């Protein structure tokens, strides 16, 4: 957790593919080199369907059927059908209409902490901003805003002292989305969830009830989880590279391109969602038997020196084309345009508002979330 990039560097140098113990101690294979990871991300022989897994292998956390019928557990043709239906509702225009609300929310959050001179940038900014955006996107009134962060933390970074918390979080999500879907059917609005319900209820090639519930869960879970880490990691990278921070403050038009390098340098996920070969597959010279678990390290691939020279250096002038921080292939992050929009605006508003922004603790005092998948900070103390 303290130095995953150093561990991945040693793994890359030792060989492209390694058999390891997965996050829960069960066997898995990890792939670390850029070309192998990119190729595997697009390989149709690597299934996301847990029914393809051998008994006893690592499969990730278990969800009830009403939340498990989502794009991260599906292969074509179901994946193709659902992604096509979602794309009809999750349009570029809908994302662009969020630009104003995202900026207003970012400004309001910084207004709230401005008088204090010090704050935890994760708790006060990087976390509440994506929550507000997801609520806006799904049409969730602010008064009904649930504790999204507590739910996602319970699944991604479980607390060993609270072994039943993940199950409680899943139950809370099921109840919340059940109520929300009922409300949206009765009173549809100009929001993504209402649009998805229309797709579910009107089309011939439509969503099942479980697929609709699972999509709402995925939008919440992935939309929040990836973006809060991306914003927090990007802010830390800039604060620990003052010359790059000064460059962006002087030339804010460079922020969109900078977000790509910041995502490559320290992205929101160490690993892609686990995969299961449908047949014996050769990856990086190793034969991975059908049904065993394959973990593709996005973080290791994006620090591969054969693809990105001097990969451990943050370089805002770097050509970042092809970075894998948000995936590749048919499972490329559906919400990537929204995550980029939020991160660009979050950084722009932060740099405008606090010209003296600086870390308030030594780098060595910062702690990461205890997750082998998500790459995020527990807190980011700053002064301004």
Strand order of the largest sheet: 1-2-8
Averaged pLDDT: 91
- Which regions have little confidence, pLDDT < 50, spanning 5+ residues? none
| N/C terminus separation | 28 Å
- Count of helical segments? 16
- Largest sheet data: 3 strands, mixed
Task: Return the string of H and E elements.
Answer: HEEHEHHHHEHHHHHHHHEEEEHHEE
Number of strands: 10
- Please tell me what the overall shape is: globular
The percent of residues in helical segments reads 40-55%
Q: Determine Rg (CA atoms, Å).
A: 20 Å
Sheet-strand content, in percent, reads 5-15%
Structural class, from helix and strand content?
mainly alpha
Question: What layout of secondary structure does this protein have?
Answer:
Blueprint: H1 4-14, E1 17-21, E2 27-31, H2 34-41, E3 46-47, H3 65-68, H4 78-89, H5 92-96, H6 99-113, E4 118-120, H7 121-126, H8 128-138, H9 148-156, H10 165-186, H11 192-202, H12 209-239, H13 242-250, H14 255-265, E5 276-277, E6 281-283, E7 286-288, E8 294-296, H15 298-301, H16 336-353, E9 358-359, E10 381-383
